[in-house]
Amino acid sequence: MGRAMQDLTQSESGDGIPRDKLTGSLRRPSVKKNVAAIHVSGKLTLLQRKLSNVLLLNAYDTLISRPKHQIDARTLCLMVGYNSNDMETLKQSLRSLAETTAEWDMLDEQGRQEWGVSSLLSYAKLKGGICEYAYSPALAEKLHDPKVFALINLNIQRRFTSGHALALYENCYRFVRTGSTGWWPIDLFRRLMGVDGSAYYDSFKHLNAKVIKPAVAEVNKTSNILLEPEFRKMGRQVVELRFKIKENPQLGLLNIDDGGGIRQGVTYRRLIAVGVSDRLARQWIAQHGEDYVNEKLDYLAGRDGVESPVRYLTAAIRDDYKPADAADAPGAAEIGSLDEMRALRSRQLDRIRALVADRSPTQRDADKRLFLARLKDSAARADFGKSGWDSATNRTAIVKFWDEMVPGAFDDL
């Protein structure tokens, strides 16, 4: 929602927000005219800003058609970064969103001026482990308009450690296709960053040193866009600023190692030696870590007569085979052990399916988003997108995820 609360000074035409990719980038053509301004009063912390974004993403598809929305409270805490049992912090953050106002001043399609004000959330409540919340009809209409804001990828949002940096990213992101935010008055920028009303930041020197420079540095390091600030002076005083924007060509390196470092390691060379492809070797190391992969390589090394080392190693990594004692020879005991492993994995999968079936549709959607946000590797994300909770590539990670969501879920297995 932070982006929805940003001051917007321009409108964009386009096809609108893709309903099937809530966390994907919103592609729109160039800005046409000066039509709108929406901003938020009050000071939101980094976690509160993240919370407002998650709530909006969760509600977006039914923002207009439904008067209220729901999300599993524990899942919400995990997605935002709270301790999953810290309901008091969640309550305080929801209270802050309900007490914070959004104000807009824009032209409608007929060119008539419209001013309005609304609390960010009209209400929120926690009951039975579910967070229920709503937006006022007027604000929901504005938030749903793709000309007003652009949805933010939650995986990128998770990387931010500064509220100023996330606020700057939210306000600049939608202009990546146009290359610039356009000129913002300094007073407007202070409101966007939540530092209006502070005498300290009345000084541009302080604003630049403590807000602009650190925020730009974090956005450029953390996100999928690169910013370059420009300033306009009247005499010796800075009165306006804008940000030149371009896509970050290094974004892929934020998620997947380019292989330069990995290829120098012993683990990578061991994988290549047994016939694993370059891409799969880098994927396994990035996803599971060198220690885990080395453990499975050791397991493979202790098996004689394996016809397909790559296939066997794939199963060992996927199903978490454990190294046997060096003195143990392959035989009936090993075969029985493998059968037991397969049976265990089958029982775990059945348990996962049962856990998913017990969740509400809203909870299931939130669970998938939360799990996807944990996956850094594109191949792993693609397999989960194709197979869901049945994904063999992500089986170990899926079991770990559900064990965190429902502690003790697999203990009896």
From TrEMBL:
InterPro entries: Initiator_Rep_WH1, WH-like_DNA-bd_sf, WH_DNA-bd_sf. SUPFAM superfamilies: Winged helix' DNA-binding domain (SSF46785). GO terms for molecular function: DNA-directed DNA polymerase activity. It holds the Pfam family Rep3_N. GO terms for biological process: DNA replication initiation. Residues 31-172 form the Initiator Rep protein WH1 domain. Gene3D superfamilies: Winged helix-like DNA-binding domain superfamily/Winged helix DNA-binding domain (1.10.10.10). Residues 1-25 are annotated as: Disordered. Belongs to the initiator RepB protein family. This is Initiator Replication protein. It comes from Roseivivax lentus.
